[in-house]
Amino acid sequence: MLGVDPRTDGIAQRRVLLEVFAGSCQLSLAFRRAGAEIEAYDISLSEEQDFLEDEEFLERLHKDPPWEVVHFAPPGGETGNSALATKVALAVRMLYQRGHGFVIECAAADPFWKVEAISQLADELPGVDALGLDMTEFGAQASAQVQLLTNRGSWLASMSRALPRKP
User: In which domain of life is the source organism classified (predicted)?
Assistant: First the structure.
């Protein structure tokens, strides 16, 4: 089909992204502009979307039609919270067991990565990789060292290659 971008062809027919801890929703908006079905989840969007208090979150994640990737970006200042990290780890393990994609994104030096429930994931789940990157690779104006934990490393790499590079 003439004029169709193969990276986004058919994207509107799929549940592409669930962004948990969406904050400013920048990632969700970028996917929506590309025509993807997305859902942003954050307490700043609705009091009912309090990740720690939402007792039905994991059940909905299990029962609802799957997303291609669920992106978790825990908020700064909360990331050393073991209850939050444990619930993120439970969600990730469930997604992994069902063969669904996930990404956890957090500052590389954040204490979140030291919480045992999170630090064990890459060791215990084959095909899960920790990736370090600078957000300038994805268009950020200032350097920000981020660590990702994901079972979709090749998916993210293809997105990075698709972006124009600075000279």
Answer: Eukaryota
